[in-house]
Specification:
The protein is about 70% helix and about 5% strand. The protein is an all-alpha fold. α1 runs parallel beside α3 and α11 packs antiparallel against α12.
Length: about 325
């Protein structure tokens, strides 16, 4: 009965062993187990019972655990790849969160014209992303070259000091810029929410005169966010791009604000046009001030960076 229990135990282990090494490993384990049985029987002065043999095998280890000791791969993602998997997972979750924030804002603006229904719930999307990212890094662990992932260049590290926008902020701004560019060029449309209250609101001709200038501004804005995401070490380049786009935005709005009309409002409410024009003029003035202030702040930061560099040199 002792030999039968050991044979069954070894057979269970053999099912999970590499085929090429199975015979040798089973023979090695059999010798080790039989030596243990002989030593215990010699100490007891009698053959071991089935219960005693079972207790010895339990002490030796679960068949899956014992077989696992002989596998070359002991983990799904090893310590060499794990830091990159963790960084990629955090970045993926930030992207998902930014996408849902953008879709919520778009839905509020468009009155439900766009929604996140096609993506599913945020939880299911994150679970799916977790599985995909884990699978990709597991494949890299098995068939790729993890050493290449560890290559890096110290000069591309971001500065140790200074406040920088988070990835979430950059991705959200990037997503909103893409949505606005698609809307501005007519690739997507939003439902007219003012139609529900009997008003029809259209852009005045002044905006068409600045169509390509606004496209250029949006391209610079998107490019600056992409550079900030991919090359956090290029701080000065990003700041120059922010200065240029801010001054461009201020110049465009200074041209627009000279017009008599910004919107064309039609409908039963006679005073609607005047109200819309007033609020648009106020909003344009505030936006111009914000653009100029941001350009000034970035210029000041560039100057401080230059002073710091000269002092450290």
């Amino acid at each position: 009965m002792t030999h039968d229990l050991i044979d069954r135990y070894l057979a269970a282990i053999a099912r999970d062993l590499p085929e090429r090494e199975r015979t040798d490993i089973v023979a090695e384990l059999r010798d080790e187990l039989m030596s243990g049985v002989e030593a215990r029987e010699e100490g007891l002065g009698r053959p071991m019972t089935e219960a005693e043999t079972g207790a010895m095998l339990v002490e030796f280890g679960n068949p899956l655990v014992v077989a696992g000791r002989y596998r070359k791969t002991q983990h799904l993602i090893g310590p060499q790849v794990f830091p990159f998997w963790w960084a990629a997972m955090k970045a993926t979750l930030v992207v998902i969160a930014a996408v849902y924030v953008i879709l919520i804002v778009v839905k509020l603006i468009g009155g439900g014209a766009l929604s996140a229904n096609g993506l599913g719930s945020p939880i299911s999307t994150m679970v799916f992303a977790f599985g995909v990212v884990t699978l990709v890094f597991a494949l890299i662990e098995r068939f790729g070259d993890p050493q290449k992932m560890a290559r890096w260049r110290p000069e591309r590290l971001p500065p140790a000091e200074g406040k920088r926008a988070s990835r979430f902020e950059l991705l959200t701004e990037l997503g909103m810029g893409i949505v606005f560019l698609l809307w501005w060029t007519g690739a997507i449309h939003f439902r007219d929410v003012f139609g529900d209250i009997g008003l029809q609101v259209e852009m005045a001709p002044v905006w068409q005169r600045f169509f390509w200038w606004i496209v250029a501004y949006l391209v610079v804005e998107l490019a600056s966010n992409v550079v900030a995401l991919l090359r956090p070490d290029r701080v000065q380049l990003v700041r120059w791009m922010v200065i240029w786009r801010s001054m461009m935005g201020a110049a465009i709005l200074l041209g627009v604000i000279q017009a008599e009309r910004f919107l064309i409002v039609s409908g039963p409410a006679g005073k609607a046009q005047a109200i819309f024009e007033l609020w648009m003029r106020v909003g344009l003035g505030i936006a111009i001030a914000v653009f100029v202030a941001r350009a000034a702040i970035e210029a000041w930061r560039l100057r401080q960076d230059g002073l710091t560099s000269r002092a450290s040199a």
